[in-house]
Amino acid sequence: MIIQDIDKGKEFDWGKTSKDYAKYRDIYPQEFYDYILNLGCCKDGQNVLDIGTGTGVLPRNMYKYGAKWTGTDIAENQIAQAKELAKEAGMDINFFTSRAEEVSFPDNTFDVITSCQCIWYFDHDITAPNFAKMLKPGGKFLILYMGWLPYEDKIAGKSEEIILKHNPNWTSYGDTVHPVWVPDQYLSHFTLLSRNEFRVDIPFSREGWHGRMRACRGVGASMNPEAIKAWDKEHMEMLEKEANESFMVKHYASIAELKVNK
Length: 262
Known about the structure:
Elements: H1 18-24, H2 30-38, E1 47-51, H3 57-62, E2 68-73, H4 76-88, E3 94-97, E4 110-116, H5 124-134, E5 135-148, H6 154-166, E6 190-205, H7 206-214, H8 225-242, E7 246-260
Parallel strand pairs: 1-2, 1-4, 2-3, 4-5
Antiparallel strand pairs: 5-7, 6-7
Helix pairs in contact: 1-4, 1-7, 6-8, 7-8
């Protein structure tokens, strides 16, 4: 995937991170899922479509609340991991590979569509009207995000410095608490009902944080093998020096709730 205003137009491929993604990125806290449930979404027989599902973290963690889930992702390797993990857990989730712009279901199919950690990768001129068509009257579109806070958390800040040393094209650094982006195209088809941010501290081991960072776009999805090897060494040395074996990393969650205009 190449997007000119992301990583200075450098190519990235989430499929390269699939094994790390499956092992290390299932990190959303219960508060994250509770917030979604309190919006009345993703439960009790609702038909839910998760766009950019990755390894199916959202559908697999919310499966127990009774929704019927479908997950799509552009990367075949991600979907392969999602299918394997769901099968191991005995979950009946429909996963398939597709670009977000090419996902197609009959009108009025879904009660909820979710987009977690991926809204900036879509062609919104295409996805905004398509998502609206696929939703039932009164259906909701949730834009979901969780990020670490490098200016407030020493380990997160040092991790970003090491990524930028080995991949200066990476542009997802320097996050602060702010509302999740709602592209203007959606406001022609949806009403923005709510947008909220809240802080969460996420527990990690050294291995877990190292794997989480390797599974990010700036490392595993875009570095060549030699750069990843050098990053691996320097990042783990930093963790052994600066972090306890178990520690917390400051994050925040940011969620927008939109209702389709029909």
